[in-house]
């Protein structure tokens, strides 16, 4: 029988040719499959949590567990281990608001312009996304952006709350000029998840 490797995190076995890391948990090293007939040595057992010690944080971006609880950056994807207030991923990049309160403009101009440069129907200043002190995320379209801002397929005209799971689209969804559509919005710093909102 061909050798298998084991992920301690998801407790699954994978073929040896899978590689060094679990495909479901980047950064989690695969180990030889434990022999259930032999007792596990104390040195190989899951590390015990020392009373009062914080567990090693898990990366919000890739899911890898920090190898040292004192790390402030993920050793796999190099993102900060402090979860950001808001993440909106578009086909050509992600908008990350690291803290609250904070806001940023989206469009073909400014800090995130490179993400929207190939979309002629996205305005230079299309919308603003923000997170307030209470961790509530908002999107506000600029009135002068003629091609529209949409949340979950519904055009919005005023400041609108967005939640984890919502999708943002700028401009039309008709060929040949389909505007950029985000993946589901994420708020990694929040513990609870909400169902997608319906703009008023």
UniProtKB/TrEMBL annotation:
Sequence segments annotated as region (Disordered): 169-200
Record Pfam families: FHA
Keywords, in A-Z order: Phosphoprotein
All copies of domain FHA, residue ranges: 104-156
Name of this chain's protein: FHA domain-containing protein
Origin species: Micromonospora purpureochromogenes
